[in-house]
Amino acid sequence: MWTNGSRRDFLKNSALGIGWLAAMDLFGQAAAETPGSPLAARPSPLPATAKRVIHLFMQGGPSQIDTFDPKPALNRLDGQRPPDSFGSEDFQNGQFRDLRLMGSGRTFRQHGESGLEVSDLFPHVARRADDIAVVRSNYHEGFTHSQAQFLIHNGWTRIGRPSLGSWILYGLGTENRNLPGFVVLLQGGVRSGPEVYGEGFLPAMYQGTSFRPGPEPILYLNPPEGRSRDRQRDLLDTLRKLNGGHLRERNHDSELTARLETYELAFRMQMAAPEATDISSESEATKRLYGLDDPASADFGGRCLLARRLVERGVRFVQVWSGNGQNAIDWDGHTECERNHQDRAAETDKAVAGLLADLKSRGLLDSTLVIWGGEFGRTPTSDGGRGRTRGRDHNPYGFTLWMAGGGVQGGTVIGSTDELGLRAAEDPVHLNDLHASILALLGLDHERLTYRHMGREFRLTDVGGSTWLADQLRQA
């Protein structure tokens, strides 16, 4: 075995030099990608149509009525009181009281060969109508932002459960050991906190890694000035040896294991991450495709472009967030919902369409599942809060999301809400069904993807869930 000193002497005096170091790195990579490595890529246990996921999360909750679920009857009844069929659900501002029905000011048109109806909020996405499958009948039980975000991301209303990305990384591993397998690209704050993309009770190595917005997504990526790569490797080897002894005495604590893996990943990322995150190397045509030439869309567009670069390099799950957790700068349209959505659509529409087009042109869309949606939808009534004008309240009872790629048949609509857009009516998709079907598209059985914790086998879908939606998405 080489000692630290003898290895330095070997590199200094041997003609092999850097070539030897590169060979050793390849040997190390092969070892890390053996079946025993917890992050090694693993074949899906069931037939899969998707290999990776890009989740475009519209924080705050976009209105289904103003985006992908037109309701002519609601427009005709604009200003009237809700019918008795609405029931007495306790919305955020109390029961329906003096609330009034509020039609949409958007124009819906059919697009593509499929004739899919899309709001004029999304002229660019509308051109990709034949690539997307719109699911109009989603529902869950979380009315507040934090409850709903935990449900959408973690399958549970409270803190402590693993996120969807963590479950997928746990089930399939990652195809690039030099980058995190689960990356989160935020615009700013998160209403429910970072636990929403956390690993919960899974080993800590499966947590999401947040990249910062802006030109330097990863802090301290470059080694300290004056420290060579060889010296840094020696330091990590010594640290790993000391921590390994510490770990053996503590029953292989997952957080310590994750910290060891993080040190190694950080070392490898110094070589891989600068290239992966440098979108300046893209062509001007590609940058325009994502809207980087427009100040309104440049931020979200840059993160969508980075998401494509990451999945192209083997990252398993990437989330791109729109909205910074504040009402004025996310999709939470309590006040002037139409103006709110116009602003958010201007920031995201071109980038989302560009992402779909770019993935397709590179042959990646067939194997990359793209998901668009928020934590819930919005009510067909005015918000009714003091001083609020033409806003919409939260609505978890019936809302829309769409998927593209990953074996999904585009140009289709699955399910519907009632004629006013309040509740899922035809083919309702509970949150558990949604998660089970996303896993199924990736070749994972939601009933078998489990982790033992506190004496019980846990899973993303808890004790529910059906994969019927995945069957519909593939066959539609």
Number of strands: 17
**Biggest sheet statistics:** 9 strands, mixed
What's the alpha carbon Rg, rounded to whole Å? 24 Å
Distance between the termini: 59 Å
Structural class given helices, strands, pairing? alpha/beta
Unreliable sequence segments: 1-35
Q: Report the β-strand fraction as a percent range.
A: 5-15%
Give a brief outline of the structure:
The protein has 476 residues and is of the alpha/beta class. The protein is 34% helix and 15% strand.
Write up this protein.
This protein is 34% helix and 15% strand. By secondary structure, it is an alpha/beta fold. Helix 7 (229-248) packs antiparallel against helix 8 (254-277). The longest helix is centred in the last third of the chain and has 25 residues, at 337-361. It is globular and about 75 Å long. The relative contact order is 0.20.
Summarize this structure as a short list of keywords or feature phrases.
single chain; 476 residues; alpha/beta; two-stranded antiparallel ribbon; 13 helices; 34% helix; disordered N terminus
Give the secondary structure arrangement, pairings included.
Layout: H1 4-13, H2 17-32, E1 52-58, H3 72-76, E2 108-111, E3 116-119, H4 123-126, E4 132-139, H5 145-154, H6 164-172, E5 182-185, E6 209-211, H7 229-248, H8 254-277, H9 284-289, H10 298-312, E7 317-322, H11 337-361, E8 368-373, E9 377-378, E10 394-395, E11 399-404, E12 412-414, E13 416-417, E14 424-426, E15 429-430, H12 431-441, E16 450-453, E17 456-459, H13 468-475
Parallel strand pairs: 1-7, 1-8, 4-12, 4-15, 5-6, 5-7
Antiparallel strand pairs: 2-3, 4-11, 8-11, 9-10, 13-14, 16-17
Helix pairs in contact: 1-2, 7-8, 10-11, 12-13
